[in-house]
Amino acid sequence: MLKSRAMSNGSITATAEQSAAPDISAITALTKAAGDPLRMQILKVLQQNAYGVLELCQIFAIRQSAMSHHLKILANAGLVATRREGTTIFYRRNLRNTDIDLQPLQQALFTSIDKAALDDSIKAHLQEINRERASASVDFFNRNVSRFEENQDLIASWSDYGDSVESFLDSSIGNAGTAVEIGPGYGQFLVKLSQNFNHVIALDNSAEMLEQCCTRAEKQKLTNIDFVMGDTVLAVERGIRADCLSLNMVLHHNPAPAEIISDCAKLLATDGVLLITDLCAHDQEWVKESCGDFWLGFEPEELTHWAKRAGLVEGNSLYITQRNGFRIQLRQFSACRTGT
User: Fold this and answer.
1) Do 311 and 165 share a structural domain?
2) Domain count, the chain
3) Could you read off the pLDDT of 121-145 as tens digits, one per residue?
4) Which of 8, 214, 237, 259 sits in a 20 to 30 Å window from 77, CA-based?
C-alpha cells in the first residue's frame, strides 16, 4: 500500500516507497527488447555460455548486421552483457540488471525462457560450435604437453597455491570413498587425493596429458588411481559417482564451463562435494596463446550462478592473490541430497 504524509502547507508528498517504484518506461523497454522470437532464442542460447557475434550468426544462420542489431537492443535493455577477450567480444546473459527494481522481472523472464525449447536447427548449430571449441582446446594440450607446465607456472604455480587447495580439501571431506579429478594436468593434486580417498579417477580428454599424468603417478607409486580417457559426458553415461569432484584450473580452458559444472552435479553422490579452483576474471590476454586459456578467468558470481542452476549449494570460499597479479578462487559446492 502506498504511504504518504501531509506537509505543513497541506500538500501531499510521497515517501521513498513511492519514489522507489519501477519506472514504467524501463519496464516497457525491457519487455519490448525481449518481445521478439529471435531475441528470445538468443537469450535461451546464452543461458549457460557466452558467444561471439560471428558464432551467434552461425548458430542462427543470419547476417552479422542483423545479429548486431538484435544484440544492441538486448544490451541497451540490460538483458545481455559484453566482455572483450582478445579481439573478440563475447555476449552473455546479464545476471543482474543495473536497475534493481527490474531484477525480479528480468529473473522471472529468464526462468520462463529457460523452460522453452530451442529449434532443432539451432540446437544442431550450437552443438557444432561447441564441438569446434572443444576440439581446438584438446588439440592445444596434445600439441603443448611438454611445455604446458612451464607456461602454466607463469600464471599460477602449484607450489604457490597447492597447500591451500589441499587444506581446502581436508576441510571439505565427508566421505572418503571415491574422488574424481577432471583434467588432472600433470597430477600434482592426485597425490593428496590418493592419500585421502579409497579410489581415485583421473579423467582427461587429452590423450597426451593423460599419458604424462599416468607416468608420473606410476613413478610416485600411486596404485589406487584409474586413468580414464574422456570427458564429463562420458562419466555421466558410465554412471560414475563421486564423493568428491575436483576441477583444478580446468574451467578457464573449457569452452562450456557451465555445462561441465552441470555434469559434475550429476556425478556427485549424496552429500558429495565439488571443489573448484580457478582464476578470477583478469585482462591478461597473453594466456590464451601461451596456456590455451579460453576464458580470462571468471567472476565469482558466475561460478555461483552456474552451480546453483545445477542444483548445488554454495559452501566455503577462499581467494588467493598471486605475485603476478592473478587471483585464484577456491570454491566449495555440495550436492546436499537426501538420496540418490
Assistant:
1) yes
2) 2
3) 998 988 888 888 878 777 877 776 6
4) 259
